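Suppose you are handed a protein chain with no further information: no name, no annotation, nothing but its sequence. What can you learn? This example shows the usual starting point.
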Amino acid sequence: MSKSPNSTVPLRGFLFRVPLLLLLLQRVEPSRHDYAEALSKCILFFEGQRSGRLPASERLRWRGDSALADGSALGVDLEGGYYDAGDNIKFGFPMSFTTTMLAWSVVEFGDFMPPTHLSDVMAAIRWATDYLLKTVAQPSRIYVQVGDPIRDHNCWERPEDMDTPRTVYTVDENNPGSEIAGETAAALAASSMVFRSRDPPYAQRLLETAIQVFEFADNYRGSYSDNPGVKGGVCPFYCDFDGYQDELLWGAAWLRRAAQNDKYLNYIQDNGKTLGAEDNINEFGWDNKHAGLNVLVSKEFLEGNLYTLQSYKQSADSFMCTLIPESSSSHIEYTPGGLIYKPGGSNMQHVTSIVFLLLAYANSLAKSSQTVNCGNIVVGPEMLRQQAKRQVDYILGDNPNQMSYMVGYGSKYPLRIHHRASSLPSVGDHPQFIACKEGSAYFNSSAPNPNILVGAVVGGPGEDDVYEDDRADFRKSEPTTYINAPLVGALAYFVANPS
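A reasonable first move is to predict its three-dimensional structure. Written in structure tokens, the prediction is:
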């Protein structure tokens, strides 16, 4: 989460507010969008976020190798992984969530992906999992972040040039971090399903590691935000504002799905109440997993008739009803142009996460021939899909600005995104070193970014649909990996079902 110097506003999960209008009553029209093109570019974005030594297959040629010595001060190899947004920090919590969502996109919607797109997204997942395996290679220790965010955010510097401290933040038995461990376990478990048929030994390694990491998360409970050695680096950027309990259930749910082991089903059943599964929190994102957990676990109830999990279906139903404007329990705010809107940080992260859950739940409902009772209306899978499609089409250009919020898609898209590597001249065009404060001239420039970060989805317009294309307004103009990751699955669905 990159910002202009001294900014400290965190990006949060979403919490629905009172509805402002009922725009989504309109009939969904046949799409004019090329979802296959959008999917391809959505995946390509992750190549622009790579840290480490870039492969020969790298398609965004303006990017170069960076952070090759990460971890060396501690005698460990922490090269690789992703920068979370427009900065040069490797934040483990959102990176793990991004990985989980990329993997879930393939698990849920991979059959809809053209072969080339599937191959590309698997490469994107593996770039993350190879790094995550390094972070958990030592017993009872996880390297949760690389880079000093305060120093980094006070610079405007290319990743290829960065000379700010590459501080490594660690959790262990005495200073735990159950949320980062639980999310890492979820990421590895979900990814094991992706590689099961393509690379069985790698898939097995991912699953076995996920099991070990989950045991660490559960045996040594505590939040990394309370860890004195970590708090100064992760907060306020990616503090765990909502507690680690949801990540324990989330990790167990993915291990249940990946391993098909009743041990994890029993864990969910035995610990659900004490870990807050009944809190029915309508929120989903890198910080809070409740709504996603309910949708994920409901799949077993809907498709496998596991009646002990019925409460998760009830909570998932309740969540879906908040998303339906016609429902008497709707609690969602829209912009005048029809975009889901949550005041605060980067809005588009909420939109893409909601869209993914709408489509995933619609899949489960369709397979089990079930519907959602929202009191005054019965909602079926098609209505959920229509809601999702309106949001995706808004992102791609069906909005009052007639502007795509995905860079490089359509004829009009953001040109001045809040992203260091994109906004500074590439090493190829400007081989001379650009120091920390020397980049400020590029940050303050009104010129378009010289490097097009194809596929990047920005934070998006404000509650009035206004988007100024201002690099300094990071809430609106900054892309993040966890905006794009859920959108990969959604676009894959619409490639096969464009209408």
